[in-house]
């Protein structure tokens, strides 16, 4: 009996430590155009960030990060937008979920009535990055 209990305990430990991380992350880098920093920050805080807060509340995403960085020749962008999904199922439903949230939210909130194309440009995106740890 003790041997069966020991075997069951060891099996449980092996299974629990052998689990893989199923998170998937998307990353977008954004260049701020024509010195429109206030407009860009306002836009991302009042649109992108608010959608992700709602997405967390509804269980559509795991987490997000909104980062500002220093522009350089090596890093030709000012903002990094990161969204992490708990697993592939959440990731696969991202477009449907964000479409729903955008409809609920309504019109874009803009500073000085400038349109997004006037103050921001996507530099590059990474879709579906799998976590190793």
Give structural notes.
This protein has a four-stranded antiparallel β-sheet with strand order 2-3-1-4. The longest helix is centred in the middle third of the chain and has 21 residues, at 37-57. It is 44% helix and 25% strand. The protein has helices at 2-17, 37-57, 88-92, 94-105, 116-119, and strands at 24-32, 63-68, 79-85, 120-130. Mean pLDDT is 89; it is low at 1-11 and 13-18. By secondary structure, it is of the alpha+beta class.
Question: What is this entry, summarized?
Answer:
With 133 residues, the protein is α+β, with helices and mostly antiparallel strands.
% residues in beta strands? 15-25%
Question: Which bin fits the share of residues in helices?
Answer: 40-55%
Whole-number radius of gyration?
Answer: 20 Å
What does the main sheet amount to? 4 strands, antiparallel
The secondary structure category is alpha+beta
């Amino acid at each position: 009996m003790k041997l069966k209990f020991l075997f069951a305990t060891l099996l449980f430990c092996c299974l629990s430590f052998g689990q893989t991380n199923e998170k998937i992350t998307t990353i977008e880098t954004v260049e701020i155009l024509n010195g429109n920093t206030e407009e860009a920050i306002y836009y991302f805080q009042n649109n992108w960030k608010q959608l992700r807060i709602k997405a967390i509340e509804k269980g559509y995403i795991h987490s997000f990060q909104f980062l500002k960085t220093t522009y350089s020749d090596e890093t030709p962008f000012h903002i990094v937008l990161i969204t992490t999904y708990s697993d592939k199922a959440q990731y696969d439903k991202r477009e449907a979920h964000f479409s729903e949230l955008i409809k609920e939210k309504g019109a874009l909130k803009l500073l000085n009535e400038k349109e997004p194309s006037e103050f921001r440009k996507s530099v590059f995106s990474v879709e579906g990055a799998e976590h190793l740890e």
